């Protein structure tokens, strides 16, 4: 029987909430993992999952900065800490390469990205490479074929391009070295389409989703279209946050923190055009959300509501319908869903 587990990183209460996600979209809390004894200060807890889904990595953003490695029990979803290592700075984002042998991280305040190796037991080791970037490195991801690494610089309005050696873990300048964004747009997070042909980025300040054609041979992005995500009646300064795409590539969702909304967009691969659909009011200040591996549910957490809402996704239109809401720890800002057979 398929078992899906939800992992919520809670900054202010300094813990992780683990839920079992049922087939009908309801959830049951199965573990609360406190970080007491590891660090006494609340943390933003960016989370990354290994490609084989055996291990979960949590970044500690209070000094001394570190990454914690956990083994995941596929039967219960429980987390067992198996190691820890240093991080180069306070990291806003974690991800692994496609082999699971290296951990990438990006520091907003330190303006750096770094690489940690991961040993054969799934434990992250100390940094092996630290690279200065433009202002406010925010997200970092490998390309689908593991040949490139991309890192957004929110304050410098760019995504940096690096070549990646998956044997040694070394990253080096790509050609081109950067994808430029409009001034003061603030590129924050980005995702690849499941087929690897497109990338989609969200800009924090201009509140847009931007679609790009992805050239896998050279690692370049070609802008196709852009669409705003703010509600029509919004009057204020935007703070767009997160972006995800369904496994079938049909629907894109983006979160905006000041209006506490999720925006639904459709993408036409043939024309390269984005079409905006409805805005949905969600948990207050939705810094993080995700889509489950089946594409049937979207889970959004609110930093200021301290709750998680689970939505069903219409397979026909992508429309969201709230299923249930649950309390989490204090100030949840990261959520992942992992499925096990």
Protein architecture, described:
With 341 residues, this protein is mainly beta. It has 2 domains: 1-34 and 288-307 and 323-341, no CATH class; 35-287 and 308-322, YVTN repeat-like/Quinoprotein amine dehydrogenase (Methylamine Dehydrogenase, Chain H, 7 Propeller). The chain has no helices and 28 strands. A 4-stranded antiparallel β-sheet has the order 3-2-1-28, with no helix packed on it. A hairpin with a 5-residue loop joins strand 4 (47-49) and strand 5. InterPro entries: Cycloisomerase_2, Lactonase_7-beta_prop, N2O_reductase_N, WD40/YVTN_repeat-like_dom_sf. Belongs to the cycloisomerase 2 family. It comes from Endobacterium cereale. This is Beta-propeller fold lactonase family protein. GO terms for molecular function: 6-phosphogluconolactonase activity.
Low-confidence stretches are none
Helix content: under 10%
Structural class, please?
mainly beta
Number of strands: 28
Strand order of the largest sheet: 3-2-1-28
**N-to-C order of helices and strands:** EEEEEEEEEEEEEEEEEEEEEEEEEEEE
* Apparent shape: globular
Q: Quote the average pLDDT.
A: 95
User: What is the total number of structural domains?
Assistant: 2
From the coordinates shown, what is the CATH architecture of the largest domain? 7 Propeller
Give the CATH H-level superfamily of the largest domain.
Answer: YVTN repeat-like/Quinoprotein amine dehydrogenase
Brief descriptors of the model:
0% helix, single chain, four-stranded antiparallel β-sheet, 341 residues, 28 strands, Methylamine Dehydrogenase, Chain H, mainly beta, 57% strand, 2 domains
